[in-house]
Amino acid sequence: MNTEPTTRIHKNAIKAWTVNAFLYGLVWFVPAGFFLLISIGQNSHLPDPWYMGVDWVIFAALFIAGLFFYLLIALLFPKLRWQRWKYDISEKEIDMLRGIIIKKRTLVPINRVQHVDTRQGPVYRKFGLSSVTISTAATTHEVPALDDETASEVRDTISTLVRKVKEDV
């Protein structure tokens, strides 16, 4: 295998991925917390709080354990993900290396690229980041969290290389 790619994505990716994780967590934990409070509130007329039934105690324990792991993942994984994400672009291929637990390396031949786009959601926009998506006939690949200027340069570079390869054929 070739040497590993060396170009890193932007450091703001850590912040953006952390914010995304917290936003997705709201979708899961706010309704669960609301349900837990309702469950406790419905049984508040009972004299002994431990007599409220095993259901809410088990639910509360699972909720707390889930919240702990969620916070661990939301605060730890973005930094690990950023450390592992590298890419390089050459005249022959786009080389991407990523993965927290399992390393995944993708080589996309330039002559297989059909089109290349930049994409920016609201969180990325807040941190001045964009993603570059590379489409082939089979699938779409993404280089996430590049600063806007770098994303435009990467998109234009890949587009130029693709045109050059298609003209040579």
Structural description of this entry:
52% of the residues lie in helices and 24% in strands. With 169 residues, it is of the alpha+beta class. The chain is elongated. The mean pLDDT is 87.
Summarize the structure in short.
The protein is of the alpha+beta class and 169 residues long. It has helices spanning 12-42, 54-84, 122-126, 148-168; strands spanning 7-8, 86-89, 93-98, 104-109, 113-119, 129-136, 140-147. Helix 1 (12-42) packs antiparallel against helix 2.
Unreliable parts: none
- Share of β-strand residues: 15-25%
**Which value, in Å, is the CA radius of gyration?**
23 Å
What quaternary form is this?
Answer: single chain
User: Tell me about the biggest sheet?
Assistant: 4 strands, antiparallel
Q: What is the H/E string?
A: EHHEEEEHEEH
Structural class: alpha+beta
Structure annotation, total helices? 4
DSSP, total strands: 7
Strand order of the largest sheet: 1-2-3-4
Q: What's the helical proportion of residues?
A: 40-55%
Overall shape: elongated
